[in-house]
Write a structure and sequence with these properties.
One of its GO terms (molecular function) is ATP binding. Keywords: ATP-binding, Cell membrane, Membrane, Nucleotide-binding, Transport. This is ABC transporter related. By secondary structure, this protein is of the alpha/beta class. It has one domain: Rossmann fold (3-Layer(aba) Sandwich), CATH 3.40.50. The strands form two sheets. Strands 6-7-8-3-9-10 form a six-stranded mixed beta sheet. A four-stranded antiparallel beta sheet has the order 2-1-4-5, with helices on one face. The chain is globular, with a radius of gyration of 21 Å. Bound molecules: adenosine-5'-triphosphate. The site of adenosine-5'-triphosphate has 10 residues, from helix 1.
């Protein structure tokens, strides 16, 4: 089995002015679905703030409302009660153009338009805005392709001809086309092999630092969480039960957290990086030591 390499420490959030407003501010959020006997509550008086420069990982069990919360931050879904504010604006009132210039979203499987080539996928939101001539839109899309490590030669390829890692890169370039300060990632490394997942995490770290992005991601993958997040927020029991560094959160007593962090994968992801100094020639092979 191939395993991922031990992650480097995540980047520190960019320094902020003491009175800087949060990039994302969720207050008193209630989300209810269904009616009558079928009604159920997903979020119950949930609070969350995300400061500029953070890379926040949202974790929680299946059905705990992580994706619904991302959609509410993006303005695609409205809360039943409470406020979701993004860069000082109510998320639900941003409109499509406003949302694209403030928030970039990387959907779990890339969600590329299969009938459009790479360039047209990346350029889509900028072209739809209709404010720039076609050649500048094309140049902007090529710059974004380069930013995510793709070549101009990839621009004319169709999504069906791309590897999983390339689909993620194109989707990332598309999410960044309007230079949004906030990037939302839904399972950024899902479906990638360990080496491609490591490469994609490295790219996200570079772009986070180079562009001064604020990132909110949903991930079930502990390697990704440890590689990227400056803070982890845990959704359980319909609210945010704890937030802190990955290591702080891992020690919080809650059945979901124990299950999530304390399994074999969690222990491996939290283990210190292996020491790579060569063994002395005379050292016994490990399987001979206990005879
Ligand atoms: N538009 C909707 N109408 C009705 N129910 C919905 C709607 N959207 C989400 N739900 C329900 O809300 C709950 C939370 O869904 P959500 O997709 O946010 O969970 P999640 O935490 O992202 O789960 P997973 O980790 O499995 O993706 C689920 O029970 C889901 O079926």
């Amino acid at each position: 089995m191939t395993t991922r390499t031990a992650p480097a420490e995540p980047a520190e959030p960019a320094p902020m002015a003491a009175d800087a407003p949060p990039v994302v501010d969720v207050q008193g959020l209630w989300t209810l679905f269904g009616k009558g006997a079928e009604a159920f509550t997903v979020h119950q008086d949930l609070q969350l703030t995300v400061q500029r420069g953070e890379m926040l990982a949202l974790v929680g069990g299946s059905g705990s409302g992580k994706t619904v919360l991302l959609r509410q931050i993006l303005g695609l879904a409205r809360p039943t009660r409470g406020q979701v504010t993004v860069l000082g604006h109510p998320a639900a009132q941003m409109g499509r153009a406003g949302a694209a210039s403030r928030v970039g979203m990387l959907f779990q499987h890339g969600a590329l338009f299969s009938a459009f080539n790479v360039l047209d996928n990346v350029a889509f939101a900028l072209r739809e805005q209709g404010t720039l001539p076609a050649d500048l839109v094309r140049d902007a899309a090529l710059v974004k392709l380069q930013m995510v490590g793709l070549q101009p030669g990839h621009a004319s390829r169709m999504p069906a001809d791309l590897s999983g890692g390339m689909v993620k890169r194109v989707a990332l370039a598309r999410a960044l086309i309007m230079d949004p300060p906030l990037l939302l990632l839904d399972e950024p490394t899902a479906g990638l092999d360990p080496s491609s997942a490591d490469d994609f995490c490295a790219l996200l770290r570079e772009l986070h630092a180079a562009l001064g992005l604020t990132v909110v991601m949903v991930t079930h993958d502990l390697d990704t969480l440890f590689a990227l997040s400056t803070r982890v927020a845990v959704l359980a029991d319909k609210k945010l039960i704890v937030s802190g560094t990955p290591r702080q959160v891992a020690h919080f007593k809650h059945p979901f957290i124990t299950h999530f962090f304390m399994g074999e994968r969690g222990q491996r992801a939290m283990a210190p990086a292996p020491i790579t100094a060569p063994m002395p020639a005379a050292a016994p092979a490990p399987d001979q030591e206990h005879h």
